[in-house]
Each structure stands twice: as C-alpha cells, then as structure tokens.
Amino acid sequence: METTGQRRILEAGLRLFRAGGPESVTLPEVAAEAGLTRQSIHIYFGGRAGLLAALRAELERTSPRAVALRQAAGLRPAPQALAAYVVAWMRYMPEAVALADPHAGASPTLRRIVDRLAGEGRLAPGWSAEEASAWIAAQLSPATWRALVMEAGWPPQRVAERMIHSLGATLIAPD
User: Fold this and answer.
1) pLDDT digits (tens, 9 = 90+) for 66-121
2) Is the pLDDT confidence value at 55 over 80?
C-alpha cells in the first residue's frame, strides 16, 4: 500500500521530470519539491535508482500514451495489434526514453501480443514467443529510438512505419 509520502515523492519526481528531463530528478530537488527529506526517498525507494524505477512504473500506469499501448494490445487480429503497439510506442518514447531501463526487456503488454501471434498461428516458423518478444523489445529500445529520431533526424512516424514493415516481414507468417 502506497503512503502519502511515497505519493508526494512520485508526484514531485514526475513534475520535475516533465519540466526538466531526467537530469532534474535529483534526490535533493525531488525531496524539496515533495516537501520531504532525501532520507524519505531512501526509505521509500532505496535511492535514485529505485525512484527512477518507480517513476517508470507510474508513467506506465498513468500516461495516456502508455494507456494507448495497452489498448493497442486488444486489437484483432494480432498483426494489427503489433502494428498499433509500434505506433503507440513511437508516440510514447519522447516521454519514456529518459526513464527507460535498458535492461527491462519486453513489457507484459508486448508479450501478450506476441503470445496472441503464436496462438493464432501467425508467428513465423523458427521463432518462439520468448525469442520474438525479446527481438521486438530490442528493436523498440530507447537506444534505437535515440539513434533514429534524435541523431539521424527521422520523424517518429517514419520509424514506426519501418519498424512495422521490418517486424512484420521477420516475425509474422504469411496468411
């Protein structure tokens, strides 16, 4: 059960993150914004790494863009769900990229889509659901997004289109 102190710290951390990016999520600044001590952050979250993990979880729970990811998973058939997930992911990345955990792997939502692909017999031969989930998560990683959008200057929509085509050609069995 979440305490009032934890809620205040999360709200303060999200405000600072949205206003100034991840650099603004320092323990002294979050504590001051929340009206609490740095020790409170250590008690509730174990330090900055724990706080960032909690902020990631809070973004996934509350962000309209993250909600769109979950909604995409409900589309039928599964190839359309995967395409919608990729588009929603590209829209979500500007918000999530700075807090992303490079070691997080596939989200439960993405894994459900891949499991549906497999269940519908649409996963390409030679791919297990576990391998396909890990492959997609790697392709949609923050590093890939940074390289293509921030460094190469691709519009997020173009990245989404190329990802959908690439993932479809690689992972989805023809009708």
Assistant:
1) 788 888 888 889 999 999 999 988 887 876 666 565 556 677 888 999 999 999 99
2) yes
Cα–Cα distances (Å) from 117 to 43, 81, 111, 113, 129, in that order, read 42, 9, 10, 6, 8
d(CA 7, CA 28): 17
CA dist 38 and 47 (Å) reads: 9
- The residues pairing with 172 across neighbouring beta strands, listed in sequence order, are 123
* pLDDT on residue 146: 87
For the residues of 136-175, what is the DSSP string, one character each?
A: HHHHTSHHHHIIIIIIS---HHHHHHHHHHHHHHHHB---
**Cβ–Cβ under 8 Å, residues 149 and 114:** no
pTM: 0.68
Cis, bond preceding 22 (omega within 30 deg of 0): no
Confirm if 91 and 65 have CB atoms less than 8 A apart: yes
Q: Are the CB atoms for 77 and 107 separated by under 8 Å?
A: no
Domains annotated for the chain, with CATH where assigned, are: 4-58 (1.10.10.60), 64-171 (no CATH)
CB 47 within 8 A of CB 25: no
Three-state secondary structure call for residue 123: strand
pLDDT of residue 155: 93
